[in-house]
Amino acid sequence: MSGVRSASARPRARTALGAVCGVLAAFAGLAAAQLAAALVRPEASPVTAVGGAAVDRTPAAVKEWAVRTFGTADKTVLTLGIVVVLALVAVVAGTLAVRRLRAGLAVAVCFGVVGAVAALSRPGAAWPDALPSLLGGSVAAAVLYLLVRALNRPRPVGAPSGGAYVMDRRGFGRLVLGTAAVSAGAWYAGRRLGAYGSAGATASRAGLVLPAPAVPAAPVPPGAQARAPGVSPFLTPARDFYRVDTALVVPRVDAGDWRLRIHGEGVTRPLSLDLRELLARPLVEHDITLTCVSNEVGGPYAGNARWLGVRLADLLREAGVRPPSQGGRADQLVARSVDGMTIGTPVEAVMDGREALLAVGMNGEPLPFAHGFPVRMVVPGLYGYVSACKWLRELRLTTFAAYDAYWVRRSWAQQGPVKTQSRIDTPRAGAEPAAGRVAVAGVAWAQHRGISRVEVRVDGGPWHEARLADADGDDTWRQWLWPWGATPGRHTLEVRATDRTGAVQTGERRGTVPDGATGWHAVTVRVRAADTVRSAAGAGGGAVH
Question: pLDDT tens across 156-176, in order?
């Protein structure tokens, strides 16, 4: 078939084909950028760079809404949202290009420029980070030009009149399929190359043998786990440990390339250590509960693990650092991760005797990549945003007056001691337990202070003291259980804790910004008469042991 009258006689068909051209050009651009990012660094890919820049500029209230609404899937939702927006822009570029080619190409080029600017705006960015987006925008513009030119072929001399353009459908189809195939190949190559680039990091973690601790942790007391179905495990498995950070792509650091620098104000002997030198120092094992400042009352962003690492205070003293209480010049320790994240920690808290660690192990194994391999900070008693830097590469001594770390610049408090909190794990909200003896149980935490008392009340009535599980020190959460004589009907259960200083958890409801949520966790359940319920266990209650 030599030619068919083009879409100028059928505007809707031509517009639809233009949209296809735009989407295909965007895919080609993303594939080229993905391939280039594999050679630069994964964080430089356009989707990741734009997503990271969006996270950086999102108001704290919106960010909290996202975490509250989507939980740990917030990064996936953000990535999908960026892809959808990009697809819509691509449709606009394509439909515009069939009528005004230069305008459509300008939109494609702008796509690359926006990605490059976003990449350069990220913490720790360097000029090569802009290259994948610029390449992607250029490829997208070139592919769009070729496709639209093929779609808009001028009518040959002598062809029947009535249309400004003709289109060789077979030729255009071959061009579309060929472009899609090449783009898919480039995308796959980029993914494989990226995986190959992280293979060394994967192998370095698999081959890492952690030394035995010089100071091992005591065994977890046998009575530390409350005997009630539905209560969280006392030690949280790494696969279930919460993850809240800004990294859309988890950094995969090769242990052989890792190095830590300690410098700044009050440092008289700057240190530079590789992992081998760090592991040669005495290692300490300690159970510590970590909590995210984004955790709503009763939320899931708390986890307890056995950490292995080097005492951070020992390293700072070796570098000549003194805490402010002893005349030290610096009151803030700024930790920087390999992806540029900065977290500011009070020097006094790190050096006051608590087990602040540069952790290399979690629950008896090297840190998972998602939790900071090869080295991260863990400081009991402080929220993670001011203490728990993952993928650590630098520690700089400075002052709070001189420098605001990442989260402080985004409306959070400079210092974030953990608030006393408690949570009901069972029964769950909306459960329908049988009337009779029901186990009400959960966890409470006040890291570095410890929990001395937990109380539960029903429907605003008097407080009843719960039975505390055995304590595993003051730096971990403590489980508790209260046997409730449940009566039929709708009931609201509330819990509060008291820490070892005597401070009672406040019932005043406050949000997470700027320094952590407060209030009593409450769940509402519907208790059914015993003869109308299948079983207490099946209805969400729990037998008391």
Answer: 545 554 444 455 667 778 888
Are residues 282 and 310 in contact, defined by beta-carbon separation less than 8 angstroms? yes
C-alpha–C-alpha distance, residues 446 and 451, integer Å: 6
Identify the DSSP state of 86.
H
Amino acid at 116: A
Indicate the pTM of the whole model.
0.85
DSSP state of 430: T
- Helices marked H in 401-515 — which ranges? none
The helix (H) or strand (E) run that includes residue 21 is: helix 11-40
Cβ neighbour number for residue 218 with a 10 Å cutoff: 10
The whole-number pLDDT of residue 537 equals 42
Range with lowest mean pLDDT among 121-125, 315-319, 330-334, 345-349:
121-125
Measured distance CA(386)–CA(511) in Å, rounded: 18
Element (H, E) at 402: none
Q: Which two tokens stand for residue 402?
A: 């001189």
Average of per-residue pLDDT values in the chain: 90
Length of the chain: 545
Peptide bond before residue 221 is cis, with ω within 30 degrees of 0: no
| Residue written as token pair 């091992």 | 216
Q: What is the pLDDT of residues 358-403, one digit of tens each?
A: 999 999 999 999 999 999 999 999 999 999 999 999 999 999 999 9
Q: How many CB atoms lie within 10 A of CB 314?
A: 15
Work out the percent of the chain whose per-residue pLDDT is above 90.
69
| Sequence-separated (6 or more) residues with CB below 8 Å from residue 309 | 283, 284, 357, 358, 359, 360, 361, 375, 378
User: What is the three-state SS of 208-252?
Assistant: CCCCCCCECCCCCCCCCCCCCCCCCCCCCCHHHCCCCCCCCCCCC
Nearest to 19 by CA among 97, 115, 108: 97
477, two tokens: 């959460």
Strands 259-264 and 392-398: parallel
421, 292 contact by CB (below 8 A): no
Give yes or no for residue 416 having a pLDDT over 80: yes
Maximum Cα–Cα distance for the chain, whole Å?
A: 96
pLDDT category, 121, cuts 50, 70, 90? confident
| 95: helix, strand or coil | helix
3-state secondary structure 322-352: CCHHHCCCCCEEEEEECCCCEEEEEHHHHCC
